[in-house]
Amino acid sequence: MIPPRPSAPDAHPYLRAATAGVRHHARALNRAAPPDRGHLDTLHAHLTELHRYIDQLAEVARPPHPVAGRHLATAHTRLWQATTELHCAFHLLPGNTAQADTETSACHPERLPDGPPVLTICQRHLATGHSIRRKTTPTDLRPHTTACVR
């Protein structure tokens, strides 16, 4: 006997919980105070995991459904662009130390960053960057619009 498949709402409970968590933080964000570096570090971690997940979905969808796979690959690239902008914003926010703004606003891959959260976000970003560069070209990474063809 084959066990019944879960219904659509129960099929991905962890994704629903992650979406609810992001929605909660978006509603609770105090508009008077800008986000801090810790907030952006956590959001960057969320986006890089989502990036990895969409990459896996694109790889699975490509053989049986090439058009859907291409759209997922495009979403993968756009998510990388959003992750890059988030990483840049992280470095433009003031740090917790008394360093000069030029020290805290740049990512220096040739030397270790100052420690958490700078260390974690830069390492995560570089690792994800290596992954995306193996699968895309510089032309793919340039922003452009695409129309959904059904």
From TrEMBL:
A Pfam family recorded for this sequence: DUF6238
InterPro entries named among the record's database cross-references: DUF6238 (IPR046205)
Designated name of the protein: DUF6238 family protein
